[in-house]
Design a protein that fits this description.
Blueprint (H helix, E strand, L loop, with lengths): L5 H13 L2 H8 L3 H15 L4 E3 L4 E3 L1 H28 L4 E7 L1 H6 L1 H11 L3 E7 L2 H9 L5 E5 L7 E16 L10 E2 L8 E4 L4 H11 L12 E3 L2 H9 L4 E5 L11 E7 L4 E9 L6 H16 L6 E3 L3
Parallel strand pairs: 3-4, 3-5, 7-11, 8-9, 8-10
Antiparallel strand pairs: 1-2, 5-12, 6-10, 6-11, 6-12, 6-13
Length: 312
């Protein structure tokens, strides 16, 4: 295996440009003997004489002339690669990819992204709106740096850091008789058709767990209409097709502007929204900066009613 490194190539270029081992050694902050040994090692490894030595000057041999542009390109590419690494560390460029539940992407991320783009305009950002199960899998597969969503399945290879909690409530048409209530108990749920999100969503999975454990007095086995995303749910509720059970943040997006949200109690049921990362994998500087910006944004923004920040 060759012991030649970029240091040998840099020494070769400096000697060729200086035409002198003495001047090259001064520029490289080396002793002349150390530089001579470096060039000798390079020539021995290559099996070629790269310099012709005279009493007055050191000049490139024919082989050295041929190698010179290649050496300069190697050093240039090496320096460019180092500059790129430093730039990424200093957040001058790079890419960060995150996934989030629909309510997070719609309600929380835009404000944080405005601030992030102001500070780091050269960082490319990829944001994916995913169901809970899909985004956990993306984190596991290293397809995204992190996700912000509910804890869907407590994957052992993932870390869930609490960020927000939001309370479940009843979402119903604005002209519904119960729309003006300040609070409702679970026993007061109306007989209207219950519309639910599909089973691949974190909200539905959590409601299923609460129902099966008897924590809430609601049977979810015979749902007439299921919807895959909250925006579609809002459209159906606004047309009077039924009511739904959603956390406050999910019911605070623009799609729900024309419907009512009444928080439920007895018992109070909350969803925990977490930062989801893969255990043992450090975030890149860009991803860490985006996550830090999101936390700072949440600390100063007015959150919807029944939504609260959490801390580890």
């Amino acid at each position: 295996m060759s012991n030649i490194s970029i240091r040998h190539v840099q020494a070769f270029i400096e000697v060729a440009r200086s035409g002198s081992f003495t001047r090259a050694a001064e520029h490289l902050h080396l002793t002349q003997s150390a530089l001579t040994a470096t060039i000798k090692q390079l020539e021995q490894d290559a099996g070629l004489t790269l310099f012709d030595r005279t009493t007055r000057r050191v000049v490139l041999s024919a082989e050295g002339e041929h190698f010179m542009p290649v050496a300069e390109r190697l050093v240039s590419d090496f320096n460019a690669a180092l500059d790129d690494l430093r730039a990424r560390a200093e957040l001058q460029q790079g890419k960060v990819s995150m996934a989030g539940s629909p309510s997070v992407v719609t309600r929380l991320i835009p404000g944080a992204l405005v601030e992030f783009r102001r500070q780091y305009p050269s960082i490319q950002v990829d944001i994916r709106d995913e169901s809970a199960g899909s985004l956990e899998q993306r984190v596991l597969n290293n397809e995204v740096d992190f996700a912000i969503a509910g804890n869907h399945s407590q994957q052992p290879e993932l870390s869930y850091s609490p960020l927000l909690s939001d309370r479940y409530g009843l979402v119903l048409p604005a002209d519904h008789p119960l729309a003006r209530m300040r609070l409702l108990s679970w026993q007061q749920l109306p007989d209207d058709d219950l519309l639910l999100l599909s089973e691949d969503t974190g909200i539905r999975a959590q409601l299923q767990r609460f129902s099966q454990s008897g924590h809430i007095p609601v049977q979810l086995d015979h749902v007439q209409i299921e919807v895959s995303n909250p925006a579609g749910m809002a459209a159906l509720i606004s047309k009077g097709l039924g009511v739904s059970l959603l956390p406050a943040l999910a019911a605070d997006t623009h799609s729900f502007a024309g419907v009512a949200f009444v928080p439920l109690h007895d018992p109070v049921v909350e969803r925990e929204i977490c930062v989801i990362t893969r255990k043992g994998r450090a975030l890149s500087p860009a991803a860490a900066a985006l996550l830090d910006t999101a936390r700072q944004h949440l600390a100063k923004v007015d959150l919807p009613n029944w939504v609260e920040t959490l801390h580890d």
